[in-house]
Amino acid sequence: MKYFKKLIGEKCYLSPISMEDAAQYSEWLSDIEVGIDLGVYSMQLSLPKEEKILQQMIDKNEYVFGIIDKETDTLIGNCGLHNVNNVDGRAEFGIFIGDKLYWSKGFGKDATQLILDFGFNILNLHAIYLQVFEYNLAAIKLYKQVGFKKAGAFREAKLIGGRKFDVILMDILAEEYTSVFIQKKIPEQP
Ligand SMILES: CC(C)(COP(=O)(O)OP(=O)(O)OC[C@H]1O[C@@H](n2cnc3c(N)ncnc32)[C@H](O)[C@@H]1OP(=O)(O)O)[C@@H](O)C(=O)NCCC(=O)NCCS
Predict the structure, then answer these.
(1) pTM score of the predicted model
(2) What is the C-alpha separation between 78 and 184, in angstroms, rounded?
(3) Residue 72: enclosing H or E segment and its boundaries?
(4) What's the pLDDT at 61?
(5) Which is the closest atom of ligand 1 to the Cα of 34?
(6) Can you give the residue range of the structural domain that contains 62?
(7) Which atom of ligand 1 lies at the shortest distance from residue 139's CA?
(8) C-beta of 104 in contact with ligand 1 (< 6 A)
(9) Is residue 175 a part of any domain in this protein?
(10) What is the mean pLDDT of residues 132-138?
(11) How far, in Å, is the centroid of ligand 1 from the Cα of 190?
């Protein structure tokens, strides 16, 4: 599979999503450890369903990318901006590293910073927000590290295995973000 170096970080680069990766996404999202953190475990993500979801993302012009390991050029996950609102300059961030061998090695942080860079410096967004389950400590730590702040919570909005968890809302404003990639590529003003 050919990937394209659209946004280049320290450990990974982001390549526009490809329909050819649908089966790999279905496999990863059917894994209970990945699916529970994302809230998609209740869905039947068959190959045709995943292909439909990817096609909808492409048709809706959502900014979704494959996360590619820079060293091996292999797909390890997916991230992007959804529900882009050009009136208020807002979009919703989502990410997963599907290959669990790559967890806790800095790839999630690298990819998140690239998406924020793209959102703020190319799409000219004003704010990027997300939702995360309160039990997802890895994701919450990562989001705080790159500058997301807690904006509130939906109480007991996630029900699983007889337990109730809050859904935490976080956001980051353009002025709170420092570019890691794009600003270095923009020519100085003459
Ligand atoms: C959440 C996720 C994207 C994080 O990506 P990652 O590549 O594993 O995270 P990173 O290695 O960039 O880690 C960022 C920070 O979180 C910490 N961290 C990683 N896993 C952790 C864990 N299980 N518990 C606590 N902290 C953790 C890291 O140590 C790192 O902090 P450090 O720089 O102080 O060491 C990834 O684990 C994943 O895809 N999980 C499943 C899907 C998911 O939860 N998506 C997000 C839904 S909101």
Answers:
(1) 0.97
(2) 24
(3) none
(4) 82
(5) 41
(6) 7-185
(7) 1
(8) yes
(9) yes
(10) 98
(11) 41
